[in-house]
Amino acid sequence: MRARRATAVASVLVASLALAACSSSTSGAEVASTGGAGYPVTIDHALGTTTIDAQPTKVAAVNWANQDTALALDVMPVGFAEQAWGVEDGSGMLPWTKEKVEELGGEPVLFDETDGLDYEAVANTAPEVILAAYSGVAQEEYDTLTDIAPTVAYPDTAWGTTWRDQIKYNSEAMGMAGEGAALTEELETLLDEKTAEFPQIEGKTGAFMYAGTSEDSQIGFYTTLDPRAGYLEDLGLSVPESVATASEGSDAFYEDISTEHIDLLSDIDVIVVYGDQTLLDQWQADPLLSQIPAVANGSVVLLGSDGALAASASPSPLSIPWGVDEYVQLIADAADKVK
User: Fold this and answer.
1) Domains, the chain, with CATH or none
2) Which residues lie closer than 8 Å to 281 by C-beta, 6 or more apart?
């Protein structure tokens, strides 16, 4: 992968099935079993069809953020993926995840996925379901995981799962569809309340881009398939025509554009990017990138290159309430600079 795409993956490294919500949540290490009413259940996803025969009592999660659905519903996973990018204290957990784990008093196993999925570690936790709704799990990896326990993968495309579908698929896998729907509604209300505080965002377009210079001959942005781009809509920004057009029919979470055609990005009012003021200074000094109105105006949200705020831009049911105040304020500040 090119360096910019590696950064994109690092940051991630995105119809109701009518399942019965037949359990209540628990602060212990397992989902509370209530006798299996409504089972077995079947969940269709991009990598196959998963059948869960009984209420799972032990939940594991792989890749990015899937454990946050369980934790947000007060279910402590037996294990989930250790995180490095965005983690500032060496705990292997992003702050919103760590806070919830400590609140529930659990000691989950952290799977080291530096060199890929650690099947042995996952198997050692003896899960009864594996959550992977937001992941990049390939078919072969999925097949191996299903040898350990029923595994629910992403709805359509690797790394293309919205935070709403993270909750939907993962909660259904745990037999907690009703609780998941209520959590989604709660988060939507929170986002509506937060964006209502900043009317200057309304009517502005926004794109999540990644670093580049005219020396690279191209710059890129995340397509509407990517949950980071979708999250910008939740925060009040609309999709620029340039991004919408490039996203049509694409199964990629990012697209490059030649800097020779930089004028195509003139419809972007607010740019969100991983980086700091140094990056913006470079862009504003660049003979081509400086022609983008958002760059010239400084209407750019700088998330940093490696920290919790940057990680929170890939939304989960725990990261949204943790980071929304700062994120929406930064977007509002950028919107104020639009000319």
Assistant:
1) 14-177 (3.40.50.1980), 199-335 (3.40.50.1980)
2) none
How far apart, in Å, are the Cα atoms of 214 and each of 282, 286, 333? 10, 7, 27
| Tokens coding 79 | 């294990």
Pairing between β-strand 300-302 and β-strand 270-273 as defined by DSSP bridges: parallel
Mention every residue, 6+ apart, whose C-beta is less than 8 A from residue 126.
Answer: 58, 78
What 3-state DSSP class applies to 103? helix
| Residue 232 near residue 332 (C-beta atoms within 8 A) | no
Q: Judge contact between 128 and 58, C-beta under 8 A.
A: yes
149 near 174, Cβ under 8 Å? no
Q: What is the mean pLDDT of each run of 10 residues along the chain (339 residues)?
A: 35 30 32 55 96 94 98 98 94 98 96 97 98 97 98 96 98 96 98 98 95 69 93 97 85 81 92 95 91 96 95 98 98 97
Rg (CA), the chain: 20
Write the CA distances from 59 to 33, 81, 126, integer angstroms. Answer: 12, 12, 9
Q: What is the tens place of the pLDDT at every residue in 244-281?
A: 988 887 777 888 888 788 888 999 999 999 999 999 99
User: Which H or E run includes 109?
Assistant: strand 109-111
Residue 19, pLDDT score: 28
- Residues 35-49: tens digit of each pLDDT: 345 789 999 999 999
Cis before residue 40, ω within 30 degrees of 0? yes
Q: Residue 162 in contact with residue 227, Cβ under 8 Å?
A: yes
Q: What is the pLDDT of residue 16?
A: 28
CA distances, 142 to each of 82, 132, 135, 329 (Å):
19, 9, 11, 39
Cα–Cα distances in Å, from 320 out to 153, 189, 215, 328?
Answer: 22, 12, 36, 11
Query: In this predicted structure, what is the pLDDT of residue 33?
Result: 36
From 68, 75, 77, 76, select the one nearest 23 (Cα to Cα). Answer: 75
d(C-alpha 61, C-alpha 277), whole Å: 36
